[in-house]
Design brief:
The chain is of the alpha+beta class and about 210 residues long. About 15% of the residues lie in helices and about 35% in strands. It is built from five helices and eleven strands; from the N terminus they run ααββββαβααββββββ. The longest helix has 9 residues.
Length: about 210
């Protein structure tokens, strides 16, 4: 039997922190669709490096270009930095760096060097002023293409960046062994323990496990 979930938040879904369901849709918690995790690097207005631990994004293109599509909180440093400087960098880091990535969430005041807070090493990008992260196995250098208020409520904007250049560690460039395993892409998932009770469930961090080739 399938359970239908409508567009209105179920009454048993209670905010774990004030405003949670202003920022996140109840579908996020109910569905638990996994998304790749990565760090977005930008510069703050004062020139300090900014790092945003991010997910919920898509990567796609055609003969006209390759694009990053990611939602960002409109009040966040990262969103404001991208609007001002028109560039950003997507850095994919494996699960061994999860705690380091998570530290950047809390060390985020205006005067903080957020790459240093996470213990990361900046490296010069080839097409943008924003630094790449040396520890990342893959980095996408992006120029702002467009942005739009997702819901029209001034909460989240869908930021679209055109990928100007990609830097990939040599051992990750061929095959699937490194990219699709413990040393590859890091994923975020959310799973309710009990939909009926609205139990808050658990956040999960995962990597891919290849079960078939060819």
């Amino acid at each position: 039997m399938k359970i239908d979930i409508g567009g209105v938040k179920p009454d048993n879904f209670v905010d774990r922190w004030p405003g949670e369901f202003e920022i996140f849709s109840h579908f996020e918690m109910a569905l638990g669709i996994p998304h790749a995790l990565f760090l977005i690097t930008t510069f703050k207005e004062n020139g300090k490096p900014n790092a945003c631990f991010q997910s919920w994004s898509s990567f796609y293109g055609d003969c006209g270009g390759y694009y990053v599509m990611t939602p960002l909180l409109m009040h966040s440093h990262t969103y404001q930095n991208i609007l001002r400087d028109k560039e950003f960098c997507i850095n994919f880091i494996h699960t061994g760096y999860y705690e380091a990535c998570y530290r950047t969430i809390f060390k985020n005041d205006e005067e903080c060097d957020e790459l240093a807070a996470g213990g990361f090493t900046p490296e010069t990008a080839s097409h943008i002023a924003v630094p790449r992260i040396k520890e990342a196995f893959m980095s996408l250098e992006c120029r702002l293409k467009s942005e739009m208020d997702l819901s029209g409520k001034g909460k989240q904007s869908l930021v679209i960046g055109e990928v100007l250049s990609a830097a990939v560690e040599e051992e990750y460039i061929n095959g699937a062994e490194k990219k699709y395993g413990p040393d590859g892409f890091m994923y975020y998932g959310y799973a309710l323990k009990d939909f009926a009770s609205g139990d808050e469930g658990e956040r999960k961090v995962a990597c891919l496990n290849v079960i078939r080739k060819g």
